[in-house]
Amino acid sequence: MADRPKTHLEAVSRPEAWCRLLDAWREAGGPPELEIEEIGVEEGLGRVLASPIFARRSVPHYRASAMDGIAVVTADTEAATTASPQVLREGQGFQWLDTGDPLPLEFDSVIVAESVRRLADGAVEINAPAVAGQNVRAIGEDVAEGRLLLSQGRLLTPQDLAAAVNCGSDRLQVRRRPRVAVIPTGDELVSPDTINLQPGQIVESNSLLLRGMLQTRGAEVRVWPICRDDPILLKDVLAQALAETDLVLINAGSSAGRDDHTARVVAELGKVLAHGLAIKPGAPVILGVAQGKPVIGIPGYPVSAALVCELIVWPLVDLLTGIDGPDQPTIQARLSRRLASPVDREEQVRVNVARINGQWVAMPGARGASNLRGLIEADGWVV
User: Fold this and answer.
1) Do 235 and 229 touch, CB atoms closer than 8 A?
2) Do 24 and 289 form a contact (C-beta atoms < 8 A)?
3) Bridge pairing between strands 293-298 and 286-290
4) What is the pLDDT of residues 14-68, one digit of tens each?
C-alpha cells in the first residue's frame, strides 16, 4: 500500500518564519549588495536609486507669471475700485504676459486676464488693486537649488523622472535589478497557447502573475520552462536557477502530497526553514536558503501565489535593492458583515470598498484560494 500523503509540516507564524529566513540568509552572507549602475534618466522607471538626487537648479529658475494676465507694479494699482476703475497704459503701467513668461524686473505682481477690461486704445481698466507677489512664481518656489529631491532607496516613478530632469539631472545611479527565477512545476500544467484543453490540464498562468508583481518592485524576472513532477529534474533546474539568479521561486509542489517534491529538493541543496505558515490563504509555503540565496516554494492556487508574493517575496526583493517602501496604501473601513476567522491563522480576506454615507465600507468577497475572478475584482485585502 502506498504511503498516505502527509499534511504540510508546520503552521509557523509569519513573523517567526520571516526571522528564520533572514537569520539563515545573513548567516550565509546575504543579502548581497547589488552593483551600482549609471543610466540615463529615460531608463529610470521602476529602478531603485543607489544615491540621492539633489536639485542642481531651482524650479522655477526665474520669476514667472503663474497666470495669463498683465504684469503691474502693485503700488500703481492702489487707487483702483469698483466704483472708480483705474486705467493703465501698456508700456507705462503694465505688460501682457502668458502663463510661464518671465516677469520683468520692474513689475511685482500679475492681475489675471479675466479681471482686466480691454479698452479700444490698447489701454486696460482694473477695478481692484493688486497684491504684491500675486500670481507670481518665485525662484525656487517649487524646488530650491541644492535641496534633496529624491532619496536613496526610492523606487522611481514617472513623476520622479520628470522632477529629476526639471532639476538638472540627466543621469542616475541605481542598483542592478535583482534577478528572480520563477520555476512553474506540475504534470498538469500546459502552456497558454494550448488549444484543446483536456480534463485535468491547467494553463500555466501564475508565472505571468508573479512576473508582473515582481517587475513592479524593480526586479528582473526569468521564467523557466514548466518543470514536471520529477524530483531529479527539479533539483537540476533549481541548481541552475541558483547559479544564475539572486532569488528563486518554485511555484506549486509546496505542500506535502505525493507529487510535491519542492521541500525535499530544497533540503538536498540547502536548508528548509519553514514548511507551512499560519496564514490563509497560502498556508503551504516553503521558506529555505540554498547556496546563500532564498528559495521560496509558492502554492499553486493564484490567490495564494499573489498573497505569498506580496507578504514574503516583495520584502525579499526590497532587501536586495535597498528599496525604501513603497508601503501599500491602507484605509480604515467598516465591514459590511461579520467575518469569522480561525484564531490560529492570519487570514487575508479580499474585499471591495465603497464610500457609503460618508464612511468607507469593506464588502468581503469569496474566500477561495483558487478564486481568480475574486482576485481580479477585489480592491484590496482586509486583515
Assistant:
1) no
2) yes
3) antiparallel
4) 999 999 999 999 999 999 999 999 999 999 999 999 999 999 999 999 999 999 9
Whether 267 and 307 map to the same domain: the answer is: yes
Residue-wise pLDDT tens digits, 167-195: 999 999 999 999 999 999 999 999 999 98
Residue 373 lies in a domain: yes
With CA atoms as reference, report the closest residue to 222 among 234, 235, 195, 240: 240
Sign of CA dihedral 248, 41, 39, 173: negative
Give CA–CA dist 180/317, Å, rounded: 9
21 part of a folded domain: yes
Contacts of 168 (CB under 8 A, 6+ apart): 55, 56, 57
- Counted residue by residue, the chain has a size of 383
- Rounded CA-CA distance 346/302 in Å is 18
Helices (H), the chain: 14-27, 158-166, 206-215, 231-244, 262-269, 302-308, 314-321, 372-377
Half-sphere exposure of 1 (CA within 13 A, CB side): 3
* Domain encompassing residue 362: 334-382
Indicate whether 3 belongs to any domain: no
CATH number of the domain to which 270 belongs: 3.40.980.10
Number of domains in the chain: 4
Same domain, 240 and 289: yes
Say if residues 109 and 128 touch (Cβ distance below 8 Å). no
Q: How far apart are CA 66 and CA 274, in angstroms?
A: 59
